[in-house]
Design brief:
Number of strands of chain B: 8
Radius of gyration of chain A: 21 Å
Oligomer: heterodimer
CATH superfamily of chain B: Archease domain
Radius of gyration of chain B: 14 Å
Largest sheet of chain A: 8 strands, mixed
Strand content of chain A: 25-35%
CATH architecture of chain B: 3-Layer(bab) Sandwich
CATH class of chain A: Alpha Beta
Helix content of chain B: 25-40%
Distance between the termini of chain B: 28 Å
Largest sheet of chain B: 5 strands, antiparallel
Number of domains of chain A: 1
CATH architecture of chain A: Alpha-Beta Complex
Largest interface: A-B, 47 and 36 residues
Shape of chain A: globular
Chain lengths: ~475, ~140
């Protein structure tokens, strides 16, 4: 990105002054190195988002931002329904509520090392992964609607987990206000036998070790110590979420003119929050969130079974579950005034700071766990939401309590397959003690660690900007790759 | 070459591009490019035919609908397709795809496509009269 068009507010905060149709400035959280490597499209897309009706304060880019669909991936924008604010299908993304959850195992590295290969084989057998994989569950129409209304709560009621899991999931495992009737039959058909599947692309289930602890107090509150073994699951709402995105993107493009919205880019397709289409998407998108939460809950259940066969002493308890493709109704202080806003986070994680009332009591003092997935074979991070609301009366400095979500690609899939071979990557990682199990070697090549940005640089920038604080660094032992 | 397909660069995902002497052929080739995101189209045997119909207010939205129709058919039928035929009609199209059930061993699918997008979306005729149809697909 050309930095001459940006105003430097600090080492990790840069501003695009409003011009032309922009209603608010653009704000980028990143250090100079990350910004220089960032696609110029991020600049363009941020300016476009800043032009949408009812946007509040600024359009934000996280340190891992890259070129997305209308909104940059790693983008945050809040809209006020009372000021003509909009909701955007492109601002949520195709994989609604794609996210990460991390589970404790109660085990130490030394408990797992000798059984690692068996564990990898068992997990690979239990977790449906990759193109065309099916879950063991078939949902009829009634169960489908119950799942879309209930989310992880539905899954727990069906025996796929415990009440304790729900306490450690955003919204206690269920997005309120979901409307299964606003989800098309096509979307439901795509999901019929995809519950409890990982998907493909950058989705994974990893067994990881806690390689370093950066903040002892927060780590203790989160129950993390060096040498602990944890499990992280990265996936989303599968075919259902993708189809909701497809369906509503088209409906919003076609209806934009009727709603008096000029779209600089059709991917920015949106509808007023106060419109039939806006409300319909909100209801469908919340159903998509519930689908993702239920899916990660079922995968958790499958992982527990796989562990029980190999390491019966393991106790997989949920640390936390975050979604990073969402639009959520939240209250925020803006210039000292409390406002009800709809916050889009597209490739960005909600990061409530210490003391936030929505957090479980035992996590409240430390702030919300923010889980940052790395690429296959590199590190992941556990962060803590950085800014207590009372310490920061304006949303400007913390992007409505948001942080980054991952490393972000630095190379296209095509470039990656030309540079690396899947088999060589699997062998190289095995040499470093990291076991990869995947149905697709080409998929492994496309997801080569070298095709991603340095996740540590992204996390350091988020921490330096005050969006979140570093708690622990995780490194992979086993990766089941979709 | 006046008929064919290619992929084009996109950082996070993949662009699909079809071209041919008629608009319908460009659409057909774009669908082959879509299959090539997942597997080598030459490995997909044309054993069964599936029909789709799409309508949209303009050719660009029609292209996205056409590709999304195959994203849907591939997902719910667990099939892959390697040859396509399109008949354009007023405001829409009817199409047929020939393919076979997904075979993990033989097709070695790399990734599933979530949906066709409006990014880098274009349908146009160049100076030599060749039609082009392209967009980025989310994987």
């Amino acid at each position: 990105m050309n930095l001459s068009r940006l105003e430097r507010l600090s080492d990790t905060l840069w501003r695009i002054a409003p011009r032309g149709p922009m209603r608010v400035p653009g704000l980028l959280f990143a250090d100079e190195g990350l910004l220089r490597d960032m696609d110029d499209k991020v600049y363009e897309q941020l300016c476009n988002v800043a032009s949408l009706p009812g946007i509040v304060e600024a359009a934000y880019a996280m340190p891992d931002a890259h070129w997305g669909y209308g909104f940059p991936i790693g983008g945050v924008a809040a809209f006020d329904p009372d000021e003509g604010g909009v909701i955007s299908a492109g601002g949520v993304g195709f994989d609604i509520a794609c996210g990460v959850r991390t589970l404790h195992t109660g085990l130490k590295l030394r408990d797992v090392e000798a059984l690692k290969t068996r564990l990898a084989e068992h997990l690979y057998r239990h977790i449906p992964a990759g193109v065309g994989s099916r879950g063991t569950l078939r949902l009829n129409a009634r169960e489908m609607d119950a799942m879309l209304s209930g989310g992880a709560r539905w899954a727990v009621a069906r025996g796929f987990g415990t009440e304790a899991d729900l306490q450690r999931t955003e919204e206690r495992g269920c997005a309120a206000g979901a409307e299964p009737d606003q989800v098309s039959e096509h979307a439901k058909e795509r999901q019929r036998d995809e519950m409890g599947t990982l998907g493909s692309g950058n989705h994974y289930l990893e067994v990881q070790k806690v390689a370093a602890v950066h903040d002892r107090t927060a780590a203790a509150a989160y129950g993390l110590a060096e040498g602990d073994v944890v499990v992280s699951i990265h996936c989303g709402s599968r075919g259902l979420g993708h189809q909701i995105g497809t369906d509503y993107l088209k409906r919003m493009v076609v209806a934009a003119e009727r709603h008096g919205i000029t779209l600089p880019d059709r991917e920015l397709a949106c509808a007023p929050l106060d419109s039939d289409l806006g409300r319909a998407y909100l209801g469908a998108m919340r159903a998509g969130i519930n689908c993702a939460l239920a899916n990660r809950q079922i995968l958790t259940h499958l992982a527990r079974h796989a562990f029980a066969d190999v390491l019966p002493e393991a106790r997989l308890s949920l640390l936390f579950d975050v979604s990073h493709n969402t639009c959520k109704e939240e209250e925020h202080l803006v210039d000292g005034r409390r406002r009800r806003l709809f916050v889009h986070r597209k490739g960005a994680t909600r990061a409530f700071g210490p003391g936030h009332p929505s957090l479980p009591a035992e996590l409240r003092a430390a702030g919300q766990p923010v889980i940052i997935g790395g690429s296959m074979g590199t590190a992941s991070y556990i962060l803590a939401g950085g800014v207590a609301e009372q310490a920061c009366p304006s949303a400007t400095r913390h992007a409505f309590a948001s942080a980054c979500h991952g490393a972000g690609r630095s190379m296209s899939r095509h470039q990656a397959t030309r540079r690396w071979q899947g088999r060589a990557i699997v062998d190289e990682l095995a040499g470093r003690g990291i076991l990869i199990r995947s149905p697709s070697l080409r998929g492994v090549a496309e997801e080569a660690p070298g095709a991603y940005k340095d996740v540590s640089a992204v996390v350091d920038a988020a921490a330096a900007a005050g969006l979140a604080t570093k708690v622990a660094r995780l490194e992979p032992l086993v990766c089941i790759k979709g | 070459m006046t008929t064919g397909w290619r992929h084009f660069h996109h950082m996070a995902d993949i662009g699909v591009h079809g071209f041919g002497p008629r608009l319908a052929v460009a659409f057909e080739q774009a669908a082959v490019a879509l299959t090539a995101v997942i597997t080598d189209p030459d490995q997909v045997v044309q054993r069964e035919a599936v029909e789709v119909a799409c309508s949209a207010p303009d050719p660009e939205l029609l292209l996205v609908d056409w590709l999304n129709a195959w994203v849907y058919e591939m997902a719910v039928r667990r099939m892959l397709f390697s040859r396509f035929e399109v008949t354009l009609a007023d405001g829409g199209l009817r199409g047929t795809g020939w393919g076979e059930p997904l075979d993990l061993e033989r097709h070695r699918p790399a990734v599933e496509v979530k949906g066709a997008t409006y990014t880098e979306l274009g349908v146009w005729q160049d100076g030599d009269g060749i039609w082009h149809a392209q967009c980025v697909v989310d994987v």
